[in-house]
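Marked as duplicate of an earlier ticket. Keeping the data here for the record.
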Amino acid sequence: MSQSLARSQVHLAFSTKNRVPWLQEELREPMNAHLAAVLKDICCPAVLINSVADHVHIPLRSSAPWH
């Protein structure tokens, strides 16, 4: 059976509620690693994950086989 492959690039950005600077520096690295693992598990590997005190940017690739 043949299959097609759809690929998309998405820039995901989200912030804390009311842009409150809640993401302390020591929290960001483990959070970024967790986000990367989750995205990889759902076939959307992150190109880069960058977070600051009040928001996160994640450019990612979506690569899912369609049957």
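See parent ticket for discussion. The longest strand covers residues 4-15.
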